[in-house]
Specification:
Distance between the termini: 37 Å
CATH class: Alpha Beta
Low-confidence stretches: 1-13
Structural class: alpha/beta
Shape: globular
Largest sheet: 7 strands, mixed
Number of strands: 11
Length: 264
């Protein structure tokens, strides 16, 4: 760690929406290469859309403990991870400091993070992080300022149309033998407290409709050119009609939404 990075870490407090308070739990859950969902679903689709080329500068926004870093390094990319949690960045440096650069910084104000530099990055990635950041418009304007004129942004997130925290869930129609997804709210943006970890206060997830992301990207000069909707992992085997219905629902109702946006 350079002297500048040590000073930056001391001087930069965690943003109000960071996962600083649950950093130890999250680091243990994700580990070096990502959780089961990271490895099987989120990271593969992020790499498919990102297509990092050798020598490209990639900025991972809300990087946590840097689970994406080894995958970028394997493809010859030059990885920088930024996160508002000093404890998660410390974990990232322990795990992946030899292959990536990690910086404490608020995604809303990247211009204030000296280690990020100017408009140098070929791409930015939000890997299951954008729904923990608010306000969206300020975050995207900040990230756009760190990107080159021909850059791209890749976002992977839980699907806003089907996976709203506390406002969606599974149901079973016995008469039709169908497992369905119940949706209580979608169009209204909201900040939803998530289930607390141990004795820590809950983190928050910021729900927005898909149009909110499309329009916020358009406002900073980016347009979506590719999108993926990723189904859930297969459920544990269950016998009978309900088990068959659950397997079908997991295969048909997306868990994640991923998209790439390009400048211009």
């Amino acid at each position: 760690m350079s002297g500048r990075e040590r000073r930056s870490r001391r001087a930069t407090p965690a943003a109000p929406t960071s996962w600083e308070r649950v950093a130890d739990w999250y680091d243990g859950w994700v580990g070096d290469r990502g959780s089961r969902y990271h490895r099987a679903l989120a990271i593969p689709v992020a790499l498919e859309l990102l297509q990092p080329a050798e020598g490209e500068e990639i900025l991972d926004v809300g990087a946590g403990q840097g689970a994406l870093a080894p995958y970028i390094a394997q493809r010859g990319g030059r990885y920088t991870g930024v996160d508002a949690s000093p404890r998660l960045i410390a974990a990232a440096r322990r795990r992946h400091g030899a292959i990536g650069r990690f910086v404490v910084g608020d995604a809303r104000r990247l211009r204030d993070v000296g280690a990020i530099g100017g408009a140098r990055y070929h791409a930015a990635v939000f890997l299951l992080s954008i729904q923990d950041m608010d306000p969206l418009e300020q975050v995207l304007a900040s990230v756009a300022s760190a990107l080159r004129s021909d850059a791209r942004i890749v976002v992977v997130m839980t699907h806003p149309a089907f996976r709203q925290p506390r406002h969606s869930g599974w149901g079973f129609d016995e008469s039709r033998g169908l497992v369905f997804r119940r949706v209580d709210a979608y169009l209204t943006p909201m900040a939803v407290p998530l289930k607390p970890v141990a004795s820590e206060p809950p983190t928050r997830s910021f729900h927005r409709p898909i149009s909110g992301y499309v329009n916020a990207l358009g406002a900073v000069g980016f347009a979506i050119d590719s999108m993926r909707e990723i189904p859930d992992l297969p459920p544990e085997a269950q016998p009978g009609k309900r088990g068959r219905a659950l397997r079908r629902a997991h295969a048909e109702i997306p868990m994640f939404l991923a998209f790439r946006a390009v400048r211009g």
